[in-house]
Amino acid sequence: MRCLPAGESALLVELADGERAEALHAELLRRRATGELRVVEIVPAARTVLLDGVENPRQLAAWLRELPVPPLEARAGGAVEIPVVYDGPDLAEVAAHWGLGAREAALAHAATEFRVAFCGFAPGFAYLTGLPQNRSVPRRATPRTAVPKGSLALAGPYTGVYPRSSPGGWQLIGTTDLEMWDADRSPAALLTPGARVRFVPRRLPGDAP
Amino acid sequence: MTDHAVSVVRPGALTTVQDSGRPGHAHLGVPRSGALDAPAAALANRLVGNATSAAVLETTLDGCALRPRRALTVAVTGAPCSVTVDSRPVAWGAPVRVPAGALLDVGRARAGLRSYLALAGGVEVEPVLGSRSADLLSGLGPARLTEGTVLPLGTPATRPPVLGPVPHPAPPRELVLPVTPGPREDWFTDGALRTLTRARYTVSAASNRIGLRTEGPPLERAVTGELPSEGLVLGAVQVPPDGRPVVFLADHPTTGGYPVVAVVRTPALAAAAQAVPGTPVRFVRTGH
């Protein structure tokens, strides 16, 4: 664990890998819930956790170094299920990258249990981990100017769903009509850090439409 | 609709509803937003007797014009500009009574960029996640003002307004930004760190509520690999591949994948909000 400076009221904690970052994030949420940790923002990311809105970053760094962090446990309760039509324009390319047919690639994706590693990019956009390392895919060489809302997409080790139409360079493999973000819902984001997620195929390549 | 409202006659180049923002949701990808020149917004509110966190209008460069449906106390702060009621000049930086149906015009900024218009009772559009701020990066909160927009107002407080004249900082001729080391300072060469604090940068015209972009010598990286996305703070000085520092303002993204070389101290960001394109910028290293 490395504590990096991030201004007068924040600290960026860097971990060895994403799993340790998720474990620290879970532990920090527990400590905040008990009142032991006072902080405005706890922002997990690929292998860091940002603590923002803290009174004394140095004191916090010292506390963190002594903090026992239990390994990540599977969260109690079921996974969030997201119905998907595997019909994305980049599915064939992703499948070829994996050495599979389009239908097999979709089945392999849907068989994966994902977890929300962190959110960002847009409200309700979750970076989901769970695919094995050899299933990483490159970003598109040329980003699309408009990715449709509800697109299921892959980039690097991550899977995500675009909560609204926006530019984007991820590989599109399917679509869902579930709302990822609804400001009138609580929580507004369907997927929050730590949540487990499964994609349920509504239609696979080769199925009758 | 209630007559306790104002209608927008001239929206100006970019006028948005802003309050003190929506901190606490960065983990969901929600920027904090809020008035860029927070002290000016708070002062405008105090002048009309509002709580300092009430929603105000933030204009950009050329002001805006409104017509209240019933008599209303207003105040304009931030970038100095002419203020008129039915074409008659009235005070800037002081409470002004606007009769029902009169035209309130907040003019072009004479210096600086952003003026703040507080309306007694505050703008009472529907809050999103506890804030009425417009977030231009992610599209949360009320849309930017357009001609014909009707803004509902809250009930004016009974607390006595602060009476003018009030002190206000002049918009900066030179923007001095005190910085502390950022989390990825070691991703840059020693030469780049010297360049950051010794070279003269200028404010780029591409600046907006998301970030203050600069023009000047590019900062050379010592580590050229890709940085996995990580959380970003307000005032983070991020360095994209072109090497020109970007200072993140209220609508900044919550995570990003370019290294942050330094962090600007928060009190200096109000001046950054008023720095017009071409303003010289100096980054000054302060103790950590």
pLDDT averaged residue by residue of chain A? 94
Shape of chain A: elongated
Determine the most extensive contact between two protein chains: A-B, 38 and 37 residues
Strand arrangement across the biggest beta sheet of chain B:
12-19-16-17-14-13-20
What does this structure look like?
The complex is a heterodimer of chains A (209) and B (288). Chain A is of the alpha+beta class. Helices cover 20% and strands 30% of the residues of chain A. Chain A contains 4 helices and 13 strands. In chain A, α3 (91-98) packs across α4. The termini of chain B are far apart. The A-B interface holds A 4-10, 12, 14, 40-50, 52-53, 118-125, 127, 164, 183, 187-189, 192-193 and B 23-30, 128-129, 138-140, 180-185, 228-236, 253-256, 260, 263, 265-266, 288.
Write the layout of secondary structure elements.
The complex is a heterodimer of chains A (209) and B (288).
Chain A (H helix, E strand, L loop, with lengths): L1 E4 L4 E5 L3 H16 L7 E4 L3 E5 L4 H9 L14 E6 L5 H8 L3 H9 L3 E6 L6 E4 L14 E4 L3 E5 L2 E4 L4 E3 L2 E5 L20 E8 L6
Parallel strand pairs in A: 5-13
Antiparallel strand pairs in A: 1-2, 2-4, 3-4, 6-7, 6-13, 8-11, 9-10, 9-12
Helix pairs in contact in A: 3-4
Chain B lengths: L4 E6 L5 E3 L19 H10 L8 E3 L5 E5 L3 E7 L2 E5 L2 E3 L5 E3 L5 E6 L5 E5 L30 E3 L22 E7 L8 H9 L2 E3 L7 E5 L14 E2 L4 E3 L7 E3 L6 E2 L3 E5 L4 H6 L5 E6 L3
Parallel strand pairs in B: 12-20
Antiparallel strand pairs in B: 1-4, 1-11, 2-3, 3-10, 4-9, 5-8, 5-10, 6-7, 6-9, 12-19, 13-14, 13-20, 14-17, 15-18, 16-17, 16-19
